[in-house]
Design a protein that fits this description.
The complex is a heterodimer. By secondary structure, chain A is an alpha+beta fold. Helices cover about 20% and strands about 30% of the residues of chain A. Chain A is built from three helices and ten strands, in the order H-E-E-E-E-E-H-E-E-H-E-E-E. Helix content of chain B is about 15%, strand content about 30%. Classes of the chains: A alpha+beta, B alpha+beta. Chain B: It is a single-pass membrane protein.
Chain lengths: ~190, ~160
Amino acid sequence: MVLPESLKFIGSTLSWTLRAGCLAHLIHEYVYEFTETRGESMLPTLQAQNDYVHAFKKHRLGRDLNIGDCIVAIKPSDPEHRVCKRITGMPGDMILVDPSSSSPLTNSHNECISNDGFNKYIRVPEGHVWVTGDNLCHSLDSRSYSVLPMALIRGKIVAANSLNKGFRNPETGKFWFWNLRWIENSFVSEKI
Amino acid sequence: MPSFSQLPIGIRTTIVTLTWFPVLYTFTNHIYQPFQINGMSMSPTFNPNTSNTSKDIVLVQKFNVKKPGSLNKGDIILFHSPLDPEKLVTKRIQGMQGETINTQSPPYPRPEARIPRNHLWVEGDNAFHSIDSNSFGAISQALVVGKVIGVIWPLARFGVDLS
């Protein structure tokens, strides 16, 4: 049986679309991703709206990451959402969970008692990291869902763009490519 | 530079074959994948023989496993070990979110555990040789990679009842 030319053309177009789509998907999953982020938890590093981040996927599963790195991970309490946080504790580190939530300076007496569990040290277990948002006052992070398994990490954020900011900086007139900026490791080791 | 159709037929076939690899890889990542079971923590369901070292190969379903409510108690799942992100392990779901579980204590520090939202309690069928939720606690459903739907090798045990 000989297929007419038009059917052959449709078939080959579909097959090349499938192959190209799968290749793009694999690059997205294993090499590089550019996605939107929302929410106040990473202010002032990332805006609450209109910010897009560049993520390197070779750091998925927590590979080759360090304290102070910005990461994208799947939320442990909700597999359909992703979070963007900074690593603030590596396996084996001792972490003071959140002393402010039981401090009498900002909380009522009853809140201090009910939040007493936050004022304690824990050790981050093997294969996990401790993550917090840069905006501690408005971030849902390890302080509420506890340690994050490294297997949920999808990549490391290396740069960000604000797509509402235009090609040139309106104040100086210089090119700034939608406010492209590198996101670097913010950890400073204290000299003893 | 010669055009594609001028290349030798062998090289042309190789290039066209290579373009199908992303499709194959995406299929095994998101639809179905065969997976070889190591170790005896799921014995006698998998790797029942102690006399030889043959390893079962199972078929793992990759779609519809992370959505809340997509898994049931009794399902055997493949997931990333919380203790080692590079390691994949198979265990059976023994408890869903919101339930209270009677744990094996020790190793679990308390006799009872309440399972948090979108978490699962997993145990090996061979409790004596299994590092499971009794050691590392309930696991997030986001760690799940797939659901085991049947044994495909050895052929003698093809499609054996997993429940």
